[in-house]
Hints:
By secondary structure, this protein is mainly α. It has helices at residues 39-49, 55-66, 69-103, 110-134, 137-157, 161-188, 192-199, 206-223, 226-231, 233-257, 271-282, 284-303, 314-335, 353-372, 377-383, 389-417, 421-440, 448-475, 483-520, 526-531, 533-537, 544-577, and strands spanning 2-3, 606-607. The longest helix is centred in the last third of the chain and has 38 residues, at 483-520.
Amino acid sequence: MVQKTTVDSEESSTDIPKAQNSVIDFEARAGANSPGLDEKDIETANDDIGNVTQAGVQNIEAVSMTWTTWSLIIAYIGIFLISFTTSLESQVVMSLSIFATSSFNNHSLISTVLVVQSVVMAVIKAPMAKTADVFGRLEAFTISIILAIIGGATMAISSDVQTYAAAQIFYAAGSTGLQILQQVFIADTTNLLNRALWSSLPQIPFLITVWIGAPIGDKILKTTTWRWGYGIWCIILPVVFLPLALSLLLNNRKAKKAGLTTPSPLKKLGPIATVKTLWNDLDIGGMILLSAAFALILIPLTIASKASNGWASPDIIAMIILGVICLISFPVWESVKKLAPHPLIPLGLLKSRTFCAGCGIGFFYFMAFFLSVQPYFYSYLLVVQDLSIPAAGHVTQVFSFTATVSSVIISFFIKYTKYYKPYITAGALIYLMGIGLMFHYRRENSSIAQIIGTQIAVGIGGGMLNVPAQLAVQASVPSHQNVAVATAVYLTCVEMGGAVGSAIAGVIWGQDIPKKLSKYSSTIDSKAVYNSINNALAYPMGTPERIAINRAYQETMQKLLIVALCVSAPIVVLSLVIKNAKLDAGEDKVKGRVIGGTVEKRKEPALV
């Protein structure tokens, strides 16, 4: 809906106000106070975090001053095209990954690959948000597209599992970069009251892609190889990026001509000064410590069971100890202004209970997800329930479909009730109930309708948790400079939870499946069945071997769901800690044209 706004100056682009001392003067705000913080919180947070607005943030604020209705619409069309493409890509490659790892005779390595992917996704979000704050949104989007293309192309031509796993680093960095940047862009261009609704936009494609992704993956496997399932996106992704890229580029030029943009300070610096400035602005030291901590702690959790001495292996112990040291060192580094003048994660954010509780919800939400719906539920459906590849894919994607519908509906409720806490608490309870139902109907004789019902319940709860919790985190920060990093920290906690959940799932699966296969049958090659799902499916249903395999899968899935139930319980407690803030009682923390806001002193329509 477009509404006309009466203002003081003319509509001509030549009348766009000039920036004074690199500060944008005009803001679209809904009120005086931040809904996630009281006045004391804001004062404390400003002291701890600082009010320095980096060049990338200033530039997007300048671009926001030049948005027209159509340029913003084109930008959002670009966001939708990117989200649709990445959504379809994820659905297709999800059904291909087990066949890719199995082609290297390492089906069990799927957990390790997922952990590597999750670690990269967890690590890259904050650096990518920082890159967007320092260099700009367009530059960060471009870097993400390039990384995704490199990763996809490398996986397509990989000749061994090591190359495939290494390619996941680039692929995960690019795809998660696009994920965080879409949410950052939406936060840049919406007010708080409308943000939950528009933050659901990247999820809407799942309503379609969850049903067509698995059949497309199956068709690829039948007509060619799994390699093309990765390679085709290297062609499609750059094309769908064009609308957003052109919209940002053209409006950036318009803002530059109007004198609104901030010139890069790097242009006047020498090589040494440039390196020093980038080191400080990007907080490279913090990036290294955080990345090392996550990698050194999480990856050993899945490879320990494969090590010669297991958990007693010196390499495993050394990696975990070094990881803990890096994790402890990270907040120390971030708190010293001489070491981190522009910290990767400002520690002042941790003084907001809403911020901390929201991030905690994201962590446990995804941790439980990777212990229940992913990564082994798909294998369980193929083996124990004897579903076809498309059918198993459809069942596992019921969660994504239901969660998307749920999040969109809840976003409308948030928009018109102006509160988010009640929906988070209700979502936490439904999510816990859904996982409980998964545990109850884990049996081999459960009907497909019962299994689908569990996924619907889990999906409804998940949809009521994710977007509202992210909104709560964004609403709790004191300024626009912190919106991107707050979003990144929340999504980092989500991915970190997924990495921990996937690691625990890998440990349980890696220890229990081989033992139970050997226990229940002496005629099958337990190692071969464990390493390749195709070997498990080779035994017909009803044979003694298949009965033993099904029992091993079923009992292992039971243990995974028990752990998932345990880690879902804290979500309910954390939902009660979040402040029940009213969204239209605070400022939006963004400047310029926003969806649902206005631009002062300019005669242009405002989107609502």
